[in-house]
Amino acid sequence: MTDYNYFSFLGENPPNVKLLGGKGANLFKLYQKSIKIPPCFILNTRAYIEAISKLQISKKIEFFFSRSNPHKEVVTFSDNIITEILNYEFPKEFILELKQALTRFKKNLGRKISFAIRSSTNIEDQVQFSFAGQAESYLFNNTLAQIIQSIKQCWASIFSPQSLLYILKCKQRGIKLPTIEMAVIIQEMIDSDIAGVLFTINVLNNNANQMLINSNWGLCETVTNNSVIPDLIILDKINFKVVNIKIGDKKIRSSKNPNGPFTIMVKNEPGLMKELCLQNEHLLKIYNLGLNIEKIFDYPQDIEWAFKNDILYTLQSRPITSISLNE
User: Fold this and answer.
1) Rounded to whole angstroms, how far apart are CA atoms 17 and 295?
2) What is the DSSP string of 177-205?
3) Considering only CA atoms, which of 74, 199, 48, 194 is closest in space to residue 132?
4) How many other β-carbons are positioned within 10 Å of the β-carbon of residue 137?
């Protein structure tokens, strides 16, 4: 068996946040607990640390933040850093390992697949830092070149103007952030029929006895990037009862690009716009999933999920950082 320096595999490596990032470690833990997740392996943080060191990014950021008014130049600085990362050349050893990992992964699955490439930092999913949402995912990657470019785009997303301003804001408030390191999840792409997000508490009013679901047809990105008004369902967490339903307009859905990699936005048919995505059997599966995952992590969770052929997949799970729980 090949010894991998850069990659970690389900069932073979422990859920280490330092190596796998928050979302990556959570996926490994869910796998250990027999929660159905898409098959995946993870580019650990070693590759990111190596690249950032070679490009001397940390020194450049430290110097940038030492300026009197860095927020005024954040867009230009961000563009420069992102360009450097996107132009970074991986060492030959890394490319060889990635090829071996992909070959092994495809052989184990025994079918032609596409990949979702998702960021996973060591701080974005920790309760004390609201870093979630600052980084990106890239869907339907088919070739080695596309995967490599998406990895670099995930890395670069840490240095977007929004992320840099977030870090600057923390510094100005005296909030000490740990050194940010990124792993990258390389996950089988689930071409979902319905997808969405489950909050295991009602985040509209912090009611811990309710769950809140947002959903749309197709892939989950229209829900997570707020490009549609999704369906909204509130469930009673104690007795599995529907408390409230609001059917969203769901004007568009995200679908596989038929002419290449990545995704396109497609207009939903009028009937689908007016129809609730989830039937009662779907809701029961999501409800039970939420109970199980919240128990695993012992904290309210923000869960991204997807249905394909009525099979429920957990794409990722992280603690809800926008609440204040009374212990």
Assistant:
1) 19
2) PPPP-EEEEEEE----SEEEEEESSBTTT
3) 199
4) 23
Residue 151 contacts by C-beta under 8 Å, 6 or more apart in sequence? Answer: 43, 47, 117, 184
Q: Which CATH architecture has domain 194-319?
A: 2-Layer Sandwich (3.30)
Note the pLDDT tens digit of each residue in 210-268: 999 999 999 999 999 999 999 999 999 999 999 999 999 999 999 999 887 889 999 99
Q: Which CATH superfamily is domain 7-188 in?
A: ATP-grasp fold, A domain (3.30.1490.20)
**Residue 181 to residue 183: CA distance in whole angstroms:** 7
Nearest-CA neighbor of 28 among 48, 108, 289, 38? 38
> Would you state the structure tokens that stand for residue 172, as one six-digit string?
């100005």
Domain with CATH 3.30.1490.20 in the chain: 7-188
**Alpha helices in the chain, H assignment, sequence order:** 17-32, 45-55, 57-65, 74-86, 92-109, 144-157, 161-172, 221-224, 270-274, 280-297
The residue behind tokens 């867009």 is 75
Q: What is the DSSP letter of 326?
A: -
Could you read off the pLDDT of 199-219 as tens digits, one per residue? 999 999 999 999 999 999 999
DSSP calls for 211-228: EEEEEEEB-THHHHTT-S
